[in-house]
Task: structure prediction
Amino acid sequence: SQELEQSPQSLIVQEGKNLTINCTSSKTLYGLYWYKQKYGEGLIFLMMLQKGGEEKSHEKITAKLDEKKQQSSLHITASQPSHAGIYLCGADRPSGSRLTFGEGTQLTVNP
Amino acid sequence: SAVISQKPSRDICQRGTSLTIQCQVDSQVTMMFWYRQQPGQSLTLIATANQGSEATYESGFVIDKFPISRPNLTFSTLTVSNMSPEDSSIYLCSVERLAGDSTDTQYFGPGTRLTVL
Result:
């Protein structure tokens, strides 16, 4: 089965610092999704990547999918307290549209 | 994207009772899913809610414990039956393939936080 590993598991940064979260798959990724979850709440869709080498940005968040389509990174520039939360990567299953998720990265941004 | 609501947003229940969670979408969607997120863990897919037919359950989840209904393209319910403290989780519905959406992006509801005493 598809397994996704996220690193780091948790991250504490000072406001204004840049940071990167990684998501590594044991198999080729057919679709890679990044979500943000605030504690105890639902998931907010951030970005979806499908093509090897693809890169997308939204405001200060950039996500990339490597050429081999087995690793994705999420980069936040000049972090703010509003970026705090749990970041989850999810991947399409080859057999269908259901998602498998990584364990999540807990981000804390200190003012 | 779609506006997805869930009711209740949270509940505290007694062991042995059942709780039905509702998921309502503001537009027709092809696919609806139910996930569980146990404390401190990531999401696990429970089942795919199929409109007009029985839900498709993932390994480890059964219909007797988690009966699901999907009477139309905008609404689904998940029941957590005969609850035990191990069922304490956040339950999330998600949708995919909104009308006019050519992507396979899944959008999630706000979740229902369930605590079983």
Notes: The radius of gyration of chain A is 13 Å. Residues 4-110 of chain A form a domain with the Immunoglobulin-like fold (CATH 2.60.40.10). Chain A touches chain B at residues 31, 33, 35, 40-45, 48, 88, 90, 92, 97-104 (CB under 8 Å).
